[in-house]
Amino acid sequence: AKEDGKGLFRFFTAEMNERTLQRLKIESELRTALRENQFELFYQPQVDVTTGHMVGVEALIRWNHPERGLVFPDAFISIAEECGLIAPIGAWVMTQAFETASRWYKREGNPLTMSINISPRQFIDESLVFTVSKLINSVGFPADRIVLEITEGHLMGSGHDTLAALRSLKLLGVRIAIDDFGTGYSSLAYLRHLPVDIIKIDRQFLNGAATNPIDANIVSAIIDLSHALNLEVLAEGIEHLSQMELLRLKGCDQAQGYLIGKPMALPDLLCWYQTFFKN
Ligand code: C2E
Ligand code: CA
Ligand code: CA
Ligand code: CA
C-alpha cells in the first residue's frame, strides 16, 4: 500500500510538471504571437429578431498558430489571464475591434455595433478606461456602438473596482452587456443597481429550449426580466429555426448563433453581409 501511494504521488508530480511545462510553453508562445501578429479577430453576426437584419457583431479572438493552426480562445485565454498577458492581448483586441468598426462605418455609412469580450482581470486594470476613452475619441462613430461584455459569474463576484470601472465606462458612452446570463446567481435587487444595458442569455438554455419546456420557460422569464429592467436582451447559440420562432414569440430583441452565421474572418463577414443584406 505504501508503495502504491508513492507511485501515485510520483505520477501526480510528473503530470503536474508536464502541465506546468505546457503552460510555460504556451505563455512563451503567446508572447511570440503578440510580437508576430498571430492573433486574428473573427466576427459573429447578431441580428434583430423581428426584422432579421444584422445589427452588430461579436469579436472573438483566434490564434493562427504556426504549427497547430487555428487555436480557439478556450485553449489560451485563461493562461493569458494567469500570466498577465491578458492586458496586452485585450488591448490588441480592443484596437483591432475599433478599427474594424471604424472601417465599416466609413464603408457602409451606418455604424455597426461591435461587442468585445473583456476579462475580469482587464476590468480591475486602470488602463482599461483610459484605452477605451482614447479609442472612442479616435473614431468617428457614436460610443454607444461599442458594447463591452462581462460574464455574469465575474460580475457577481466583483468588488468596488469592477463597479467603478463599469461606471466610468458608462460615462464614456459605451454600453455594457452581461454575458452568459443565467449561469451565475444574480438577484433581481442586484441587477437593478448594475450599470448594464444588455443581457445575453447563455446558450445552454437555448440548447434545451426546443425540447425542454423548463428551458423554454427560463428563456421566456429572462426576456421578461430584461424588459422589466429596461434592458435589451440577446439570445446566444441559436442553431435551429424552432429556437428563432420561440424568440420571436417571446419578444426577444436580438439573436446570435450558427443558424444565423458562424464567427467569420473579416473578409468572409463582408461577403456574408453582401450576400444576405445587399440587393
Ligand atoms: P462567449 O463570449 O460566450 O462567446 C460565444 C462562444 O460561443 C464563441 O466561442 C462562439 O464561437 C460560440 N458560438 C456562437 N454561436 C454558437 C452556436 O450556435 N452554437 C455553439 N455551440 N456555439 C456557438 P469561441 O469563439 O470559441 O469563444 C469562447 C470564449 O472565449 C468566449 O465565450 C469568450 O468568453 C472567450 N473569448 C473570445 N474572444 C475573446 C477575447 O477577445 N477576449 C476575451 N477576454 N475573451 C474572449
Ligand atoms: Ca461574449
Ligand atoms: Ca456567452
Ligand atoms: Ca462563455
TrEMBL record:
Top-rank taxon: Bacteria
Residue span(s) of domain EAL: 23-277
Protein name listed in UniProt: cyclic-guanylate-specific phosphodiesterase
